[in-house]
């Protein structure tokens, strides 16, 4: 019986643990997130200089859907690697007080920026073009906004569709997703 327990314990210890690390603000922290001054114009320039796309990820403390994304989706090796290679991710706290400077140079606390952008759900992912097209607020400049949590396949394909600039084609994301899932 002792050998059985030892074997079971060894098997449990060998299982990967995907507990998302929480920061002092109660939000999940991933190594691919950038700690910036949250000046979105500067963040876009830096992302473009690195050959990456700017992704603003809006989350809140205690969000069960954010937890799902961090523990079940963002940890999938293919998704994690795709994010690391293609995206410059800035996290915004839906109810935070850290100052954010929007693309139109208006500075405000995170919670006011989120309200301004009409983001009502967490997580929300906002994807931006490689260059700013004038002085617009983030919600008007974003090429794609994904409110809510989605499964692995949908999330990975959305990340790919944005990098491939699918939003500039005649194939909407839903048809792209159906085609990719059918391959």
From TrEMBL:
Database matches in CDD domains: SoxW
Q: Where is the Thioredoxin-like fold domain?
A: 48-142
**Is Transferase among this UniProt entry's keywords?**
no
Task: Return the Gene3D superfamilies for the record.
Answer: Glutaredoxin
Tell me which Pfam families the record gives. Answer: Thioredoxin_2
Q: Out of the domains of life, which is the source?
A: Bacteria
Leader peptide range in chain numbering? 1-19
Which InterPro entries does this one have?
A: SoxW (IPR041737), Thioredoxin-like_fold (IPR012336), Thioredoxin-like_sf (IPR036249)
Q: Which UniProt keywords apply?
A: Signal
Q: Does the keyword Transmembrane helix apply?
A: no
Designated name of the protein? Thioredoxin
Question: Which species is this record about?
Answer: Roseovarius atlanticus
